Amino acid sequence: MKKQKKHEILYFALRNNKVRFGFTIILFFLLLTFVGPLLTHYAPYDYVNPKGAQPPSAKHWFGTTMFGQDVFTQFVHGLRATFLVGAIGGALGTFIGIVIGFTAGYRGGIIDEILNMITNIVLVIPTLAILLIIAAYLTVRGILVESLFIGCTAWPWAARAIRAQTFSLRARDFVDLARLSGMKDWRIIFSEIAPNMMSYLLLVFILQFGGAILIAATLDFIGLGPTNAVSLGLMMNNAVLWGALLLGVWWWFIPPGLAITAIVGALYVTNVGLDEVFNPKLREM
Amino acid sequence: MSRYFGRKLLVYSLTFFLAVTIDWMIPRFMPGDPVQTMLSRGMLHAEGLEVMYGYYTKAFGLDVPVWKQYLNFWNALFHGDFGTSVYLFPQPVIKVIMRAVPYDILLLLPAILLSWFAGNKFGALAARSRWLDNTVSPLGYILTATPYMWLGILLSWVFAIVLDIFPIAGAYSFAMTPHLSWAFVGSVLKHWFLPFVSLFLVKFGGWAIGMRNMIIYELEADYSHYLEALGAPRRLVRKYAFRNAILPQITGLSLDLGVIVAGALVTEVVFSYPGIGYLILQAIQNQDYFLIQGCFLFIIMGVLLANFAIDIAYVIVDPRTRLGMVGEGA
């Protein structure tokens, strides 16, 4: 019975154009992160072209920067940073959101009040401002640290959404029944409530993934990104800093932004498509 | 209603308290000696170093007990004392920030409000026309996924460099000094346009999609079907749907302020627009921690004030909050 349902979801997912479209793009970039570094024999910050900035050619597919660095190499390594930040930051944000959302929504009462208050506070504070001030004081920053910070500040709206869902599920008969049978609270949450929200949690994760990528790009762009790695935001930062705009070195700043837009856009579209797959009401037949 | 505002005010004052505490805590409890780090990075003469070290130790108040440092910090804050900028020494931070704030207001207020109105309008229209839906929705998804700075970079490259219609940097022509004349206002507007458009476009996409989905949801609600069954004109049903769908959009606006502010920061960086965002970039590059902290507090205060304004708007739009029934945003 359960297996059949899985097949059904997979069937609808594969037939949904939005899911297919979004998934193809994400898969393409994901593949590029793994294959890309094998296609270049430079390191991201190697000075490989003594002539400086040159447009795309057979030797340097995306051209070279003002310092003669290979843009394609930076690009594929930056993609990896982007996916890492999205995955770690998104997962952490979703996890914290789940813990707080479930606890607040299931327990209710005073615990709910307190957690709700905390959520609202973190929600109001501009995340970037906090990250900015923390990052400014850290002298060495890695991608991991960056994603941890992003995850720790991006959870509030996930917590809010999950809390609302839990709240409505808590009042259902099957949860009451589980409670009457003397089941422990955390078991009710994980075996009765969570399975009914799996699709919802997946959607939350996808949105957090995309959000983390955008926040990371912003941080990198103001110069507070990783100090020991290359990222797409950092590429744009360098391009603007070294006058790529004035000199018309478009191959330096177009690829990173385009990749971020494509990945995040694809995530959003996949999200909408999956929503249709999980909610039969929304399906266009 | 007083309960609604009471809760909101409690959250805001707690937020402000927390923000100030963070602002106070981070330089003190981060690994390393901030004074030392700051000075070792700044390019100063030996004797200047001595003076600066003394100044900063005193300014951070590191010689008194921790609890007293904290109280002193609040005290200074209420006197408008945010410290002195290193990068623009010896100007006080508050003065530097005050110079930047008008540009932020000039840029943010129209961008936020206009994108919100236009996005809602187009989103609502898209929900009722298949043709518009097929163009506005994909465009909306692309726009919301675009990083602010990239759109800014693209716009400035195309319109300021390639086509050379708009200026690339600054808030007014470098050849002018601020004064009241048509030429100056024209120059300000010309410099203002590209950053504004780039902020506007990204936000527009998000609002349009949100509104479209909300309207479709509302039109499926029982009250809409009931109205239709009664034979109400389509226009009336749409109107009710719109009034209900606008509420989450108002809440969304207050939730989104932080993101918009972040977007404004990087947009200002791209266009060298002398608002707080550009100031922060320079503060970071010059390791001017007092300036960074001052900007941080200013952003928080701005966002809190804007949130409060939105709360008031919510009460005006949603009669339920006025009657003491708890509304969406409570």
In a few lines, what is going on in this structure?
Chain A is mainly alpha-helical and 285 residues long. Chain A has one domain (2-36, 73-282): MetI-like fold, CATH 1.10.3720.
Explain how this protein is built.
The complex is a heterodimer of chains A (285) and B (330). Chain A is 73% helix and 0% strand. With 285 residues, chain A is mainly alpha-helical. The longest helix of chain A has 37 residues, at 71-107. Chain A is elongated. The two termini of chain A are 24 Å apart. The relative contact order of chain A is 0.16. The mean pLDDT of chain A is 84. The longest helix of chain B is centred in the middle third of the chain and has 38 residues, at 182-219. In chain B, helix 8 (182-219) crosses helix 10, helix 10 runs parallel beside helix 11 and helix 10 packs antiparallel against helix 12 (289-317). Chain B is globular, with a radius of gyration of 24 Å. Chain B has a domain at 100-287: MetI-like fold. Chain B is 78% helix and 0% strand. Chain B starts with a helix and ends in an 8-residue tail after the last helix. Chain B is mostly helical. The chains are: A mainly alpha (285), B mainly alpha (330). The interface between A and B is large, with 52 and 58 residues.
Find the count of extended strands of chain A (DSSP E, 2+ residues).
0
> How many domains is the backbone of chain A divided into?
1
| Binned strand content of chain A | under 5%
> What distance lies between the first and last C-alpha atoms of chain A, to the nearest angstrom?
24 Å
Radius of gyration of chain A: 22 Å
Work out the number of β strands of chain B. 0
What is the molecular shape of chain A?
A: elongated
Shape field of chain B: globular
| Protein chains sharing the most extensive interface | A-B, 52 and 58 residues
Taken in chain order, the helices and strands of chain B follow as HHHHHHHHHHHHH
Structural class of chain B: mainly alpha
Corresponding CATH architecture of chain A:
Orthogonal Bundle
- CATH level-four homologous superfamily name of chain A: MetI-like
Instruction: Tell me about the largest β-sheet of chain B.
Output: none
Radius of gyration of chain B: 24 Å
Number of helices of chain B: 13
Oligomer: heterodimer
